[in-house]
Amino acid sequence: MKLAFIINDICTEKDNYTTIRLARRAIGMGHEVVLVGIGNLIYESNESVAALVTRPSRTDYEDDTDLLADLQSDKVEKTRCNLSEMDVVLLRFDPADEINTRPWAPPSALLFAQLLANQGIIVLNDPTHLTDASNKTYFQTYPELVRPKTAIVHNAAEIKNVVERFGGKAVIKPLQGSGGQGVFIINRESSSNLNQMIEASLRDGYVIVQEYLPLAADGDLRLLTLNGKPLQVDGVYACFKRYNESGDGRSNISAGGKIKMAEPDDDALRLAEAVGPKLVRDGMYFTGLDIVGNKMMEINVDSPGGITMAEDLTGKDFSGAIIADLERKVRLKRYYGGKLSVTELAVM
C-alpha cells in the first residue's frame, strides 16, 4: 500500500503525534510511506497532483522518536512524488496552527485533496466535508442532544449578555483554534477579568460562548472513532480521561493536562451512537470526541490525536488496527473498481 500523510510541515511534527505513530506502524507493516507539508503540493499540467515529500530512509525504527529524527535529519532531502499514484492519502494537518502565518495553506491543501479524491484516491477524512468543518460551527450541525448550549458572536456586549443568560458561568473560545489556545473559563471569581478575556478571544474573530458544564472541572473524556464507531481492539476502547490539577480549566495535553485510562460509560457511548450516522455521511473516517458527562464539547475532525496516548496506556495496537483497516479499504476499492465513491469507502 502506498500511503501519504499530508501534514503542516515536517519541521513542526513531534514524536508524540498520532501521525508519527501511524506512519511508523505502516512502515513496520511493509507499506510505502511519504509525508507532505501543505506548502509542498503541486498541480501538474497533465492534471495529476504531485508534491515534494519526505521519505523515511529505513524500514525499521526503534520508536517514534527514532523515526522523527530520521525524517527531520539534515541528510534527508525532499523528493518529488506523484500523489495521484497513492492508494490512501491521510489529511493530518491542523488549520489552527496556520492562522497567523499561512492562513492560505490549509484551504489550499483541502482543494488539492479534493482533486485527488475526484481522481479516485482514498482521501481521509473526506476533504469536501472537511472544508465545511473548517471551524467549530460544524459541531452545531450535529444533534442538539449531544451539544451544550452555545452562542457564536463577535461583540463584547453580546458575549456578556450570553454569559449572564448562562448564569454567570461559561466557556469562551475562538471559533477557529485547537489545543486549548484562547480558551477561558468564566465564573463569578474571574468576572473581574472578563473584559480582558473577551478582548483576547475577539482578536481572532468570532467567539464561541458555551454553557459551563460543572463536571468539566474533573476533566473530559477523549474517545476515538473509526468508521463512525468507537475504536476498539480486543474489546478495549481507544479512550482516556484528560484532566488538569493546576486549576487551569483546560484539559488539553498541549495546555498542561494529564491523562489516565478510562472506559467510556453509557453516556459517552450514547453520544458516540448519536453522532455516528453524520460522521459516516460526511466521510469522517477518524475523529476524536471530547465528552463531559452527557454532553460532547467538541468533535475533532482535523488531525485528531490521542492514538499514542491510548496505546501507551492500554498496550493495545490501535495504530495497527487503523492501518489494517486502510488495507481493507484498498482491497474493497480494487474489488469494486470505480463503483464505490471515495466518501463511501471513507467509512465502509
TrEMBL record:
PANTHER family: GLUTATHIONE SYNTHETASE, RIBOSOMAL PROTEIN S6 MODIFICATION PROTEIN
Lineage: Bacteria, Pseudomonadati, Pseudomonadota, Gammaproteobacteria, Oceanospirillales
PROSITE patterns on file: ATP_GRASP (PS50975)
Coiled-coil residue spans: none
Keywords: ATP-binding, Manganese, Nucleotide-binding
Domain ATP-grasp: 137-327
SUPFAM superfamilies, A to Z: Glutathione synthetase ATP-binding domain-like (SSF56059), PreATP-grasp domain (SSF52440)
Keyword Glycoprotein: no
Protein name: Glutathione synthase
Top-level taxon in the UniProt lineage: Bacteria
